[in-house]
C-alpha cells in the first residue's frame, strides 16, 4: 500500500476514533488500539512502523485538540 493512501486512511480513522472518544463510545486511551484494529480488519498489515505512525498521530491529534479547547470559551466548545 502506498504511503499517501495509508496516510489518508489513518487520518480518517483517527478522526473517527477522536469522535468516538469525545462521545464516550470508546475510551480516549483506546484510540490507538481502535485505529490499529480498524486498519488490521481492513487487511492492512500492522508492523512497527505503522504502529509508530498511529501512535504519533494519536499524540499529535491530542495536542491539537487540547490546544484548540484551551483557546475556545466554554460556549464555543458546546
What does this structure look like?
By secondary structure, the protein is an all-alpha fold. Helices cover 76% and strands 0% of the residues. The protein contains four helices and no strands. The longest helix has 24 residues. The mean pLDDT is 85.
Mean pLDDT: 85
Residues in helix, % = over 70%
Put simply, the count of helices is 4
How many strands appear in the DSSP assignment?
A: 0
Q: What fraction strand?
A: under 5%
Poorly predicted runs are none
Structural class: mainly alpha
Biggest sheet features: none
What is the terminal separation in angstroms? Answer: 39 Å
Shape: elongated
Radius of gyration: 14 Å
Order of helices and strands: HHHH
Blueprint of the fold:
Layout lengths: L2 H20 L8 H11 L6 H24 L2 H4 L1
Helix pairs in contact: 1-2, 1-3, 2-3
Keywords:
mainly alpha; 78 residues; 76% helix
Concise synopsis of the structure shown:
With 78 residues, the chain is mostly helical. The protein has four helices and no strands.
